[in-house]
Amino acid sequence: MIDKVQEYFIEISNKHEKKSGYNYWDNHVKYVVQIALDLAREVQADLEIVEISAILHDVAKVLELRENESHNVVG
Ligand SMILES: [Fe+2]
User: Fold this and answer.
1) I need a labelling partner for 74 at 20 to 30 A (CA). Which of 31, 63, 65, 67 fits?
2) pTM over 0.85
């Protein structure tokens, strides 16, 4: 499951990079995932839920969904 979510996010990040020059996966989200997992281990949170949430936390930005609204709410 996580592999498929990550694969999807990398795919849309690569497409977004062709238009914007910024790759969300390479420059931001992969680091967020590592920090989120470190924190999750400290508090014994569900690692799968945390990892999927971290991967997708900026999905609205990458997909340019409803850009006049807060991306964290849309995502
Ligand atoms: Fe972010």
Assistant:
1) 31
2) yes
pLDDT tens string 40-62: 999 999 999 999 999 999 999 99
- In the reported structure, the alpha carbon of residue 7 is separated from the centroid of ligand 1 by a whole-number distance in angstroms of 18
Ligand 1 centroid, distance to 44 Cα (angstroms): 23
Report d(CA 31, CA 63) in Å as an integer: 19
Q: What span, in angstroms and rounded, lies between the C-alpha atoms of 24 and 47?
A: 21
Q: Give the residue carrying structure tokens 């996580």.
A: 2
For the chain, the first-to-last Cα distance in angstroms comes to: 19
